[in-house]
Amino acid sequence: MTEMPFKSLPIPNDWDRSGLPAWTYHSQAVFDLERENVFLNHWQVAGHVNDIPAPGDWLAFDLLGERAVVMRGQDGVVRAFHNLCRHRGARVVDGVQGHCRGAVVCPFHGWVYNLDGSLRGAAQPTSFGGIDRARFGLKPIEAEVFHGFIFLRFHPGPQAPVATLLAPYEADFAAYAVADLLPVDSPRWYTDLPVNWKSVRDVDNEGYHVPLAHPGLQELYGRDYRDLNLDDGLHVSVGYFGDKPGRGWSVRHYVKHAPDRPGLPPHLRRAWTYYGVFPSTVFAFTPEGAQFYHDLPISPGQTRLTGRTYRWPEESRQVRLARYLAARIDRDTSVEDQQLTIWSNESMKSSAFDGFYLSDHEYGLRRHHDRLRGLVPVMQLATAPAEAEVIARNKEMLGRRR
Known about the structure:
The chain is an alpha+beta fold and 402 residues long. It has 11 helices and 18 strands. The protein has helices spanning 28-39, 162-165, 170-175, 197-204, 210-213, 215-220, 249-257, 266-269, 317-347, 363-375, 390-401; strands spanning 44-48, 57-63, 66-72, 78-82, 97-99, 104-105, 112-113, 119-121, 140-146, 149-153, 182-183, 189-193, 226-229, 234-240, 271-277, 281-286, 289-299, 302-311. It is globular.
């Protein structure tokens, strides 16, 4: 078995095998606390710099009532702004991604912004009695780039700068030449599920279910699959393929056509690797392609699974075929996970549900829940408070720590 460069946190001999209480999956008040303390103040990936290669290219990213636009300026710098005209709050760009020719023009009243976010001019400026353009530029959003991937954060939060946070991934991302990735022609994909976002994470944060629930993955790499739990909400999963030819059509042909990239270190050459970032982002790399995906909450009972897919430059016909076959395997896996997520989420409202009882193989799931309890301590309560009291109880529990 190939040696990985990551050291997984040791699993205690005697640890609490329970998960979050079921009530936290359908409480609107808990969802409101997660909005402020888990999502808006933690790093989110919006895309890759090669999604917006030219000045005026932009990407939109919406999350829980906040709207961002990530844009490349005339100077080549990538910046993020609130997608909010300073006049009446209209979206200054609409859609998933696009291009502005030299300036951003609000479609409501025609205010014009430079590509660096500064206000070039308001329509009929004398009607405002004189306007200080320096005061009315697009509001910036904190943004950082790590090996080409663009991260943004709507509010200041507890996570370190992206380069510090993801330092354990530095060597692998460099080996994969992640900064050189090019977008596959399709835009951001998404699927909406009638579940709480935590149910999606519960399925994705452990590999205990792979042998039975994912026959394709089990055939491809399940014999060597492992999960590694790191500090700071980082999680690595890896599976090695190629020791067997495979029986299913997609797996058999993928193993045959998957490229051998001799420039990669041994632990990456014949591997599918997944790099998790709290709260809900995963980067997935294979020898022929890459993607990121995350589950973004919409409401307590609805979650959007979304992401983007990438390829490496100068893709040969064989590599393109391998990427197609990998996508078939990944598509089947996603459908299987979606059904598991729905079943798991349904159980949270059943009177017969007694909570999780976790295996050592699900220690990563428990670590994720512990991190949520640390940010939203009311989740520690086994019995739900009255819904109207949840936020006050959370504030009280936070106060006890000080």
